[in-house]
Design goal:
The chain is built from 10 helices and 11 strands. The protein is α/β, with parallel strands linked by helices. It has 2 domains: about 25-135 and about 280-320, Rossmann fold (3-Layer(aba) Sandwich), CATH 3.40.50; about 140-270, Isopropylmalate Dehydrogenase (3-Layer(aba) Sandwich), CATH 3.40.718. It is elongated.
C-alpha cells in the first residue's frame, strides 16, 4: 500500500505525468524596463539564450538595445531571435511593457518578461490578455526559499490596498500556484499579520480570517490561520502566505537583502529570484524587480519558459472558481 500523502508536502510519487512540452518557448523581452536597462536586460537575455537551446526571444525596445543582443549571438543562432523595434524618439519605458504584452495577445510570443513599472504591466496585462473570470485584481506571486523548502508569497506589489475579498481570491490563486507548479499536496494557506491571536492586526487583517476560513480552496488546500514574519522565513507553518501588495513588497525586498548577505537560516543560500508571476491574467507574465541583475533577468526568462512549456497558467486557471468572492 502506498504511504499516506501528507498535506503541505511535495508529491514525490504518484504525481500525474507531465504533458509533452513544446520544443520551443517564445519569450517577449522588454529591453527597456528596469533601473539599469537596457544593459542588464541584454545581459540576462543572453544568459538565458545560451542556457536554453530551445528558447526563442522576441526583443522589444530600441534598435540599439536589440542590436546589442544580436551582436553577441552567433549567426547560425540568429533565427532564434526576433525584434519588435520601437522608435527611440520620445519613447517611454512603459511603451515597451505594453508592446511585449500585445505581442503575446497577437500570438507573436508565448510569454512575457519585463522589469518595468509594475503598475503599468499589471494594467496593460489585464487589458491586453484579459483576466480570469472572477479575478478583479491580479496578484504578483513570488517564491521564497525557506528553512523547510520554499513558499509562495502573494501579493508582492500588484494590489497594494486590497479588501478582504481580494485577499480571499489571492488565497485561491496562491493555492493553485503551489499545487500546479510545485506539486504541493493540499497546500496550507496562511494570512500574514502581526500576531496569531484572533483580532490581531489592522482592519483588513481582522476582517479577512472569517472569509478565508469559509473558502472552498482549490487542490484540497486549507486555510490554517494567521502567520507571522518568522513563519515566512522558516516555512514550516504554511506553503502559501497571503498579504497585501504593500506589505508583501516590503517583506520581499527586506528578505532579498538579508538572504543575499546572510543566507536563509537553515535553508539554501542565495537571494530569492527577483521575478514574480502575475496571477489572474490569461497569459504567462513574469515581472522582475526593477533592480534585477542580469542573473535575475535570466532566471525570470527561464521561469516564463518553464511555465509556458508546462501550460501552468491554463492549469491554474482551471482550478479557480468562476465566481467572485462576495464583499462583506
Amino acid at each position: 500500500m502506498a504511504g499516506r500523502v501528507v498535506p503541505g508536502q511535495r508529491r514525490t510519487t504518484g504525481a500525474p505525468a507531465p504533458s509533452a512540452e513544446p520544443v520551443t518557448a517564445r519569450i517577449a523581452v522588454d529591453l527597456l524596463g528596469g533601473d539599469n536597462a537596457p544593459a542588464v536586460v541584454v545581459d540576462g537575455a543572453l544568459r538565458a539564450f545560451q542556457d536554453d537551446p530551445s528558447l526563442h526571444l522576441l526583443l522589444v525596445g530600441t534598435h540599439e538595445a536589440a542590436d546589442a543582443v544580436l551582436a553577441a549571438v552567433a549567426p547560425a543562432e540568429r533565427n532564434r531571435v526576433g525584434m519588435l523595434p520601437m522608435p527611440a524618439v520620445e519613447l517611454h519605458p512603459d511603451d515597451a511593457a505594453r508592446a511585449v504584452l500585445r505581442a503575446v495577445a497577437d500570438g507573436l510570443a508565448d510569454a512575457v518578461l519585463s522589469a518595468g513599472n509594475t503598475a503599468a504591466i499589471v494594467v496593460s496585462a489585464a487589458r491586453a490578455l484579459g483576466r480570469w473570470p472572477g479575478v478583479r485584481r491580479p496578484a504578483l506571486a513570488a517564491v521564497l526559499p525557506t528553512a523547510a523548502g520554499r513558499l509562495v508569497l502573494l501579493d508582492v506589489g500588484s494590489a497594494v490596498d486590497p479588501d478582504a475579498a481580494t485577499l480571499a481570491m489571492h488565497a485561491r490563486l496562491g493555492a493553485a500556484y503551489a499545487a500546479v507548479v510545485h506539486e504541493v499536496v493540499e497546500p496550507r494557506v496562511g494570512l500574514l499579520t502581526i500576531g496569531t491571536e484572533r483580532g490581531k492586526g489592522d482592519r483588513l487583517r481582522r476582517a479577512a480570517p472569517d472569509l478565508l476560513a469559509a473558502l472552498d480552496l482549490p487542490a484540497g488546500a486549507r486555510y490554517i490561520g494567521l502567520v507571522e514574519g518568522h513563519d515566512v522565513v522558516l516555512g514550516a507553518a504554511a506553503d502559501v502566505v497571503v498579504t497585501d501588495g504593500f506589505t508583501g513588497n516590503i517583506l520581499l525586498k527586506g528578505l532579498e537583502t538579508a538572504y543575499g548577505r546572510l543566507g536563509p537560516p537553515g535553508g539554501p543560500a542565495g537571494v530569492p529570484p527577483r521575478a514574480a508571476l502575475l496571477l489572474g491574467v490569461a497569459g504567462t507574465v513574469v515581472v522582475c524587480h526593477g533592480a534585477a541583475s542580469g542573473a535575475d533577468v535570466a532566471a525570470g526568462i527561464a521561469l516564463a519558459a518553464r511555465l509556458h512549456r508546462r501550460a501552468a497558467v491554463a492549469a491554474m486557471a482551471e482550478l479557480i472558481p468562476h465566481n467572485e468572492v462576495t464583499h462583506e
